[in-house]
Amino acid sequence: MSPAKSPQLPPEPPPTVMAALRDRLSGRQQQIIGTVFVVRKTSQQLDNAVSEAMATTTASPARFQVLSLLWAAKKRGVPHKEIVAALGVTRATVSGLMAGLERDGLVTSMVASDDRRSVLAGLTRKGETMIEKAIESTAVRLSKAFDALSPDELATLTTLLGRVQQGLLLPK
Fold first, then answer.
1. What is the pLDDT of residues 16-70, one digit of tens each?
2. Rg, the chain, Cα only
3. How many CA atoms are closer than 13 Å to the CA of 162, on its beta-carbon side?
4. What domain range includes position 7?
C-alpha cells in the first residue's frame, strides 16, 4: 500500500507573481517568502519520506502511532481512551484502527479486570516485530536526510525552527 501522493509545491510562486511581489515587498519580505517555500517543500518531502517508510511496514502513520504507543508502554495494557487522547482523534477512529490491527494480528484488546468499562490494548509479538522494523526503517530514512548536517547544525536548525514556531503563536 503506497501513501497518497501529496501535491508538489512549486519551488517558488510563478514568475509573474514573483515579479509583482518584488515590486511590492522589501528585500527581507522577499527573502522570507523564499524561505517559506523552502521550509514548506522540505516539510512536505520529510512527511512523504516518513509516510513511504511507514507504508512498507505499518501501512499508515495512524497505525504507526498506535503501535508505537503500545510498544512504548512496554507490555502494560494501554486503555483505548489513552490512545484516543494521544492521537487526538475520536473513539470511533480508534475503534476502527484497533479492529484492523486486531484483524491483522498486531494487537489485542481486553476488558480491564478492575474497570469493566475500560478496554486495554497490547501488542502481539507480530505487532512488536512490525513496529520495531518500522521504527528502524524510519530512523534510517531520516538519518540519510539529515546526514549532511552536523550535530551542532541540527541543534541550530531545531532552535531556529522553534523560534519561527513561537513567532507564529504571537497574537496577530
1. 988 898 899 999 998 998 899 889 889 988 888 888 888 888 888 889 999 999 9
2. 21
3. 6
4. 1-56
Please tell me the pTM assigned to this model: 0.72
Residues 66 and 150 both lie in one domain? yes
DSSP 135-157: HHHHHHHHHHHHTTS-HHHHHHH
Q: To which residue does cell 477512529 refer?
A: 93
Residues 142 and 74 in one domain: yes
Q: Mark whether 128 and 94 lie in a shared domain.
A: yes
* Burial class of residue 123 (count of CB atoms within 10 Å of its CB; 0-12, 13-18, 19+): buried
DSSP state of 75: T
Give the H/E segment covering residue 49. Answer: helix 27-55
The string of pLDDT tens digits covering residues 92-150 is 999 999 999 999 999 999 987 887 788 899 999 999 999 999 999 889 889 999 999 99
CATH label of the domain that carries residue 83: 1.10.10.10
Listed in sequence order, the residues at least 6 apart from 77 whose beta carbon sits closer than 8 Å to its beta carbon are 110, 112, 120, 121, 122
